[in-house]
From TrEMBL:
This is N-acetylmuramoyl-L-alanine amidase. It comes from Dorea longicatena. Pfam families: Amidase_3 (PF01520). One of its GO terms (biological process) is peptidoglycan catabolic process. Residues 110-221 form the MurNAc-LAA domain. PANTHER family: N-ACETYLMURAMOYL-L-ALANINE AMIDASE, N-ACETYLMURAMOYL-L-ALANINE AMIDASE AMIC. CDD domains: MurNAc-LAA. GO terms for cellular component: outer membrane-bounded periplasmic space. Keywords: Hydrolase. SMART domains: Ami_3.
Length: 226
């Protein structure tokens, strides 16, 4: 009788372990965001000696990138996210004495992202083109990343709130260093064209930057929580 009871207890214990194991697998596979991994890395493109694109209104891309990233950071933090910025001031990253500062800068950005291992990394940039009529926000992702593609498409939808006439689609890329070298889903958000007079004026306007930050924040949350 005693052996039967012990066997029954053992079987019950094993059944509980199997059930717990299945539930744990469901939790992990569902990609649910927990308090421990609610981390986003925001990368403000360029900085310091690297101004990025120069707008028709003489605005420097590096400054616009940082202003928008700061606003996104505030919004994400209010929603309970931890935000790591690759830069929080006007500077290039990496060794300032390096022969090729740009390469060291990009490597430093990738290192920050890979060491942090966030849910996702979002790099903020501004675009430019020789034709001043070209306009519209666009999102880029690594061509070999399915998760990156999904994120970019979600973000592109979120950016439609800024301009419903924008017909641009999320675009794959296999050459951008940041997209190729990061170990987590990473996208690059080109907020608009500094070469377009109308967009250049908007992108340097605080109110418009706040609206852009709102849209990108919503896009980030849609990307990582769905």
């Amino acid at each position: 009788m005693r052996k039967k009871i012990e066997l029954a207890v053992l079987l019950l214990f094993l059944a509980i372990l199997v059930l717990l194991s299945k539930n744990l697998q469901k939790l992990v596979s569902s990609g649910n965001v927990t308090a421990k991994n609610k981390i986003i890395v925001l990368d403000s493109g360029h900085g310091g000696d690297d101004p990025g694109k120069i707008g028709v209104n003489q605005a420097k891309e590096k400054d616009v990138n940082l202003e928008i990233a700061r606003k996104i950071k505030k919004r994400l933090e209010k929603k309970g996210w931890e935000v790591v910025m690759t830069r929080e001031k006007d500077e290039m990253l990496g060794d300032p004495q390096a022969g090729n500062k740009k390469i060291h800068d990009m490597k430093a950005r990738v290192e920050i992202i890979n060491k942090t291992m966030p849910q996702a990394a979002v790099s903020i940039h501004q675009n430019s083109y020789q034709d001043e009529q070209i306009r519209g926000a666009q999102v880029f992702y690594y061509s070999h990343s399915e998760e990156g593609k999904r994120m970019a498409e979600q973000m592109q939808k979120a950016l439609l709130t800024m301009d419903e006439t924008n017909t641009r689609q999320a675009k794959a890329n296999d050459t951008y260093y940041l997209l190729k070298r990061t170990e987590v889903p990473t996208i690059i958000v080109e907020c608009g064209f500094l070469s377009n007079p109308e967009e250049a004026a908007k992108l340097t306007d605080t109110k418009y930057q706040k609206k852009m930050a709102d849209a990108i924040t919503k896009g980030i949350i849609a990307c990582v929580e769905n």
